[in-house]
Amino acid sequence: MKSILIKDTTREEREQIIRSSLDCGGGCENCSSCWLGGGNPMDIYQDYIDGKREIREINQSYMEEYRQDRQIKG
Fold first, then answer.
1. Which ranges of 1-74 does DSSP label H, i.e. alpha helix?
2. Are 34 and 28 contacting, i.e. CB atoms less than 8 angstroms apart?
3. Cβ pair 22, 56 in contact under 8 A
4. How far is the C-alpha of 27 from the C-alpha of 9, rounded, in Å?
5. Which tens digits make up the pLDDT trace of 46-60?
6. Which residue among 7, 18, 53, 72 is least packed, with the fewest CB closer than 10 Å?
7. 9-28: burial string, b at 16+ Cβ within 10 Å, e else
8. Does pTM surpass 0.85?
9. What is the rounded CA–CA span in Å between residue 73 and residue 49?
10. Domain ranges for the chain
11. pLDDT tens digits along 17-71
């Protein structure tokens, strides 16, 4: 498997990684079911696509913000 780190990918590859990894097939418009209602995956991972933050960093920030006091294992 090829690395998905920013340093090893192009912007186009990162966009495709997000599309293929997180697309449920139902489309994102008017959907709020992703990740506990967090919104469109393309918006959530825009910093990764733009080469600003790794997926790992975004996932960590997301869970800290949206997990709140829920009993969700991390």
1. 11-22, 41-44, 46-49, 55-67
2. yes
3. no
4. 25
5. 999 999 999 999 988
6. 7
7. beeeebbebbeeeeeeeeeb
8. no
9. 27
10. 6-67
11. 988 887 666 665 655 555 445 567 788 899 999 999 999 999 888 878 766 656 6
